[in-house]
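Hi Y.,

Following your request, here is the sequence exactly as I used it, all 298 residues.
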Amino acid sequence: MAGLSKLPVGHNNASNQRRAVHEASRDRYEVRRIAKLAIAGVVLCVLIACGAEAAFLFSSIFMAGRIPMYDEFATRDFSQWNGLAKQVCCSGSAIVVDAPNWKSKSAVKFEINFYEPLVKGSHRSEFRLKATVFHRPYEYGFKIFVPQDWQSDNNQVVVMQMHNVPDNWKGEWGLPPPLELGLVNDSWVLRTASGRTQTWLDRKGDLRHDTPWSQPFERGQWSTWIVRTRWSLDGDGMIEVEKDGKVVFQRNGANCYDNLLAPYFKFGAYAPAWRYLTVPPEPKTREVFFTDVFAREL
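Below is the corresponding structure, written out as tokens. Let me know if you'd prefer a different format.
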């Protein structure tokens, strides 16, 4: 167009170079900003996780049921079990009743119902004790009554656990307990688990699971259980389970996970598979009875 002069080629090149430098600088700043936000987010998550883990470990050591302990529920209350020792959803989930088929005896009835609220992410009504110490021997005992009208199905109801205290801070996911006793179909089933847990850098770990014992269970009568443990990752570990005065399982050697704290004792009713069901189970309610529960260090 007449009257307009063209800018020198060198001027255009210099302008493009300045624009490129500015854009590169802006991109570097954005990368640094995102990196700083990511680091801050990670640090915040770590701090929150560490705080939650510290609170969980503290409660596992100091605020759960004590050892030694013995409870035949003769006082008709739960005076030996503080709030954190009870994992129940509702007032009727654990109540003291007259022991079935046992005159002048008290027991605790644990009940779970498919339609009631979850407790710690699952259908459970359980009492727990504090975490134990590695390489020390412990003995636990309880009597359990399975009702005469118990309907069998393949959704396990766990009645006793020696549960690990998970190391969430190092990236551990939920794991099966090192020892559990459950009711499946028409049988008692004893399961074990041990090994190296997952971490943030190793998502598989080195885990071992086993079902070393099962036996048809008795409806409408009491059975007596004694469990002796010495939790260890080494050769001094020991598990021994007695039913009605007879040893049904015994194992020596490594028997737990590489956690900071050793496992703790839980008893009651817990249906881990119910939370994954797309249709309600049949039956929708489970109940079991316990009495003469004890724990002690040998």
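The helical segments are 9-62.

Thanks again,
Q.
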